[in-house]
Amino acid sequence: MRKFKLFVLSLLVCEVLIASLIVYGTLLSWSSSVTVNVASPSIGVYWDEECRRPVTSIDLGTLQQGTIDWQITLYIKNNAKGGVKLWWNSTINQASSEMRDAWEYYYEYGWYEWYDLNGVIINAGQVLKTRYRIWITTYCPIGNYNWTLNLGVMD
Predict the structure, then answer these.
(1) CA-to-CA distance for 49 and 128, rounded, in angstroms?
(2) 117-143: pLDDT as tens digits
């Protein structure tokens, strides 16, 4: 009988521990979103390579402290009659100094991970495959974060 009581007590302790871990994990997660602001009518940001579904915001889903590399593929189309040179920035640092982002592009043989979109020239009608990436440190305070991703054309 004593072994049975000990067994039941062990099961209860395990259940409490598992429930505590689930609650703790939930507390360390949060939802965030990014507003995409295109500052020029000559370009567009899209979810698909065919450029049928424009992007106005990105729902990041559930983020967690210590997210190593969250990323999403986006497509940029040049609707102008000639080539354009892109620029981009974001307000992620205003949301938290414990998060950083990058907007990279794919060209012929792979991702240009060490170069971002600033200064990239795309020709008339060209669609550029890109990826937006986010890194969150383990020190980032828990909360809901929202920021703006700006894209434009240099003069």
Answers:
(1) 8
(2) 899 999 999 999 999 999 988 888 877
Number of domains the chain contains: 1
Would you say residue 50 lies in a domain? yes
What CATH number is given to the structural domain containing 81?
A: 2.60.40
In which order are the strands placed within the sheet that holds 110-116? 43-46, 70-78, 127-136, 99-107, 110-116
pLDDT at 33: 79
Q: What's the first-to-final CA gap in the chain, in angstroms?
A: 83
Residue 111 CB neighbour total at 10 angstroms:
15
18 is a domain residue: no
The whole-model pTM stands at: 0.78
Residue 63, in any domain of the structure: yes
Q: What is the mean pLDDT of residues 94-109?
A: 88
Q: Is residue 15 part of a domain?
A: no
pLDDT at residue 100 tops 60: yes
The pair of structure tokens assigned to 99 is 């998060």
- Structural domain for 59, as ranges: 32-154
Residue 82 and residue 124 in contact, taking contact as beta carbons nearer than 8 Å: yes
